[in-house]
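About this split. The held-out portion is used to measure sequence recovery: a designer receives only the structure tokens and must propose an amino acid at every position. Recovery is the fraction of positions where the proposal matches the reference. Here is one held-out target exactly as it appears in the evaluation file.
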């Protein structure tokens, strides 16, 4: 199980944003703190899977002290996010209406997802509610 420090930020009139100082470019968001934390776990797991698939090393997690010495991180609330690296991702080819794909991509980008991450999360939620 991997665990990394994530920082939660909240600006007025925005969702709770989450980013990982040790993993540049990895960010997500949630409407509530619980949702932000859950999405952070999902985003971390997907990111680590992607690194593994690409043959990239997983960086060593920084200590809380190291993360918080960076002045850019001091306005965030630090949380520890754990993620299990799941089975290897498999590339699939699907067909979607162009407008649906545009809406999916727009929503995913606005909420800190990749297209694949969003579709996987949406499918899981639908299956759990059935």
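Reference sequence for scoring:
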């Amino acid at each position: 199980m991997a665990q990394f420090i994530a920082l939660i930020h909240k600006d007025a009139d925005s969702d709770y944003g989450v980013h990982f100082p040790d993993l540049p470019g990895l960010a997500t968001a949630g409407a509530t703190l619980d949702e932000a934390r859950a999405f952070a776990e999902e985003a971390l797991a997907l990111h680590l899977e992607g690194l593994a698939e690409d043959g990239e090393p997983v960086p060593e997690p920084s200590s809380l002290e190291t993360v918080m010495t960076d002045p850019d991180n001091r306005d965030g609330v630090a949380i520890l996010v754990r993620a299990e690296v799941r089975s290897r991702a498999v590339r699939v080819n699907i067909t979607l209406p162009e407008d649906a794909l545009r809406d999916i991509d727009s929503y995913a980008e606005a909420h800190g997802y990749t297209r694949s991450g969003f579709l996987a999360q949406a499918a899981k939620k639908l299956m759990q509610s059935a």
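Annotator remark: The chain has four helices and four strands.
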